[in-house]
Specification:
With 380 residues, the protein is mainly α. It has a domain of 209 residues. 73% of the residues lie in helices and 2% in strands. It is built from 16 helices and 4 strands. The strands form 2 sheets. Strands 1-4 form a two-stranded antiparallel ribbon. A two-stranded antiparallel sheet has the order 2-3. Strand 2 and strand 3 form a beta hairpin. Helix 12 packs antiparallel against helix 13. The protein is globular and about 60 Å long. The two termini are 42 Å apart.
Length: 380
């Protein structure tokens, strides 16, 4: 069992808890850097999707997990960043200025959405952001001069300062760089007065106001920062998908982002990364099972002589090929996580870590949920 004794105030605000933590993260960094040298290009490409989704997860985590503002319109911010970046590249603007302009435009969009939503919370805010997403999707479809409408908009591979990032491995490192920078920046921001104000607003707006927190300003900052990160993710998303179309940035994608932060673990940057791994890797896993289950069951049927096994495998494969099955699996997993593990994947990892660090003195009541109070009861 290892105990951490704090001897200075600086230990409360340092990025890593201690040297052991820093060593583990350093080892993780070395593994992530070496992965493209050990995997095929297909798996490198799938891991790149994890990095892009993790950027989106950090963006939504700032809003939902740390500020307590529910959004169903983040796919619109992703689309604004992707289309703005592609538009500027198409008109000859270099890559770095194009990304900066795309982030600025997305940030402005976040402020525009955030200002009317300052007096909204809960389901009303979710409906407002949903309406924004529907409006922006219609703009993507109609504003053909910028987005090319339903004809689509091709996006070339990135070229930064004359250096092409045309293959999957180089683009992997580009996305990894931006993910690490976003994690570092967000981690430092959450340790600052701004991040503490966000957490205070999430816990209780009335208590935050009583402590002098300007709720309107900090909510606007949260929307702006969240939209900026989503704009950066949109620029990388545009290069990864290589061809933009309005039907990509739908409400289903926004729900997928919300699923990401809930399954990963609300209120944790680790949860954003864990959720990204889940959301990015589940579709290829379903695709692999769709092809491998019928073949493996057919081989088993031939070896054992039980014909029903082959028929069962074919039925399972046909079921997985039906449209909407993937969305149904996402929904089922979301319901199971909410019922069985409300703290998400990162919460489960924390429980496992605490179990081994305190064994054999671990108690189940350590993570027992306490009584929750209604908003009206808190004011008494």
């Amino acid at each position: 069992m290892r105990f951490l004794f704090k001897t200075s105030y600086a230990q409360d605000i340092q990025i890593f808890r201690d040297r052991v933590d820093a060593s583990w993260y350093g080892l993780l960094g070395l593994v992530v850097i070496a992965l493209p040298l050990l995997m095929s290009e297909y798996y490198v490409g799938e891991t790149t999707w994890v990095f892009i989704y993790a950027l989106c997860g950090i963006s939504l985590m700032v809003l939902v997990g740390y500020t307590g503002l529910v959004s169903l319109g983040h796919a619109a911010f992703l689309g604004i960043g992707a289309y703005a970046h592609a538009f500027f590249l198409e008109h000859g603007i270099p890559w770095i200025p194009s990304v900066i302009l795309a982030v600025l435009i997305t940030t402005a969009s976040g402020i525009i959405v955030g200002l009317p939503a300052l007096r909204m919370t809960g389901i009303y805010l979710a409906i407002a952001t949903l309406a924004f997403s529907v409006i922006i999707q219609e703009v993507f479809s109609r504003w053909e001069y910028v987005t090319h409408g339903f004809a689509g908009m091709p996006v070339d591979k990135p070229v930064i300062l004359g250096i092409p990032f045309s293959d999957d491995r180089s683009f992997y490192y580009l996305c990894l760089f931006f993910l690490v920078m976003a994690l570092w920046l967000t981690r430092n921001l959450l340790r600052s007065p701004t991040g503490r104000a966000w957490v205070a607003i999430r816990d209780s707006e009335i208590a935050a106001q009583s402590m002098g927190v300007n709720v309107a300003i900090y909510k606007s900052i949260a929307f702006a920062y969240s939209a900026a990160l989503m704009g950066l993710a949109g620029a990388l998303f545009a290069h990864k998908i290589a061809y933009l179309a309005p039907d990509i940035f739908t409400i289903l994608l926004s729900i997928q982002f919300l699923l990401l932060v809930i399954v990963g673990g609300l209120g944790s940057l680790h949860g954003a990364v864990f959720g990204a791994i889940f959301v990015a890797l589940l579709p290829p896993i379903i695709a692999i099972l769709r092809d491998s289950i019928p073949a493996s069951m057919a081989d088993a049927a031939q070896s054992t002589g039980i014909a029903a096994m082959g028929a069962l495998g074919e039925a399972v494969g046909n079921f997985l090929k039906k449209p909407g099955v993937e969305a149904g699996i996402f929904g089922l997993i979301l319901v199971l996580v909410i019922l069985l593990e409300p703290l998400g994947m990162y919460g489960r990892w924390v429980k496992i870590r605490v179990f081994f660090s305190t064994f054999p003195m671990y108690k189940r009541a350590t993570f027992k949920r306490q009584r929750t109070y209604m908003r009206s009861e808190r004011l008494r």
